[in-house]
Amino acid sequence: MQKEAVYGLVEIYRDKIKAARLVANPGCYTTCAQLALIPLIAARAIDLDEIVVDAKSGMTGAGRAAKENMLFSEVSEGFHAYGVGHHRHMAELDQEFSKAAEREVIVTFTPHLVPMNRGILSTIYVRGLNGQTPQDLHAILHTFFAKEAFVHVLPFSEMPQTRHVRGSNMTYIGVANDRLNGRAIICSALDNLVKGASGQAVQNMNLMLGFAETMGLEQIALFP
To answer: Around Cβ 71, how many Cβ atoms within 10 Å?
Structure first.
């Protein structure tokens, strides 16, 4: 059945998911980065060889299994990179970015563990192509997601925080100027347990079964 499986990133593959019998739910890191980048890659708006994704996740991203290196005393008051150069979600990034670009794309991606319960924040560095400014990139994202229920592009230069999406199925995206001419800094935030996992699965299920896409997913952020 693998040949008929559809990658379950709703905002990109909605029509295919509606007709699918088997959907592969995306990973949390990949959802956070792909929603911010796929529209720009598809629009040929950024340099594909200069994409850097610096991502941070809460501890629930590692699951609930009892592991010594995930004990509170081991991770509290610390912050570190892991899976450097070989994280399991890299294949998803390569697959979807390459599809959007219609050529091979391999980005620099480094995940970090933050001593918080939940949430992912990705800080992404890109360079515009053919004179595209950070404001142009912001406009592309704003237009692409204008009618989406679960992706919100913030006003230019405003940056999302994980507390803005905690417990919700939302992804918030912000775009700002880098101090280097032609470069932009993009930040995206989601809850790894909702839009990054079970919430996205429910969103896919709703589409597959003909329910309203937002059914069961309209919870607002829970912070504090």
So the answer is: 10
- pLDDT of 87 reads 81
Identify the architecture of domain 27-195 in CATH. Answer: 2-Layer Sandwich (3.30)
Q: How far is Cα 153 from Cα 175, in angstroms, rounded to an integer?
A: 8
Active-site annotation holds for 28:
yes
Give the percent of the chain with pLDDT over 70.
Answer: 96
| Amino acid in the structure at residue 13 | Y
135-167, pLDDT tens digit by residue? 999 999 999 999 999 999 999 999 999 999 999
Q: Go through 134-163 and write b for each residue having 16 or more CB atoms within 10 A of its CB, e for each that does not.
A: bebbbbbbbebbeebbbbbbbeeeebbebe
Q: Which of 6, 9, 23, 28 is catalytic?
A: 28
- pTM assigned to the model: 0.93
Helices (H), the chain: 10-18, 28-42, 72-75, 90-101, 134-144, 199-209
CA distance linking residue 216 with residue 206, whole number of Å? 9
Rounded Cα distance, 220 and 97, in Å: 30
pLDDT in tens, 75-99: 778 888 888 888 888 899 999 999 9
Domain ranges of the chain: 27-195
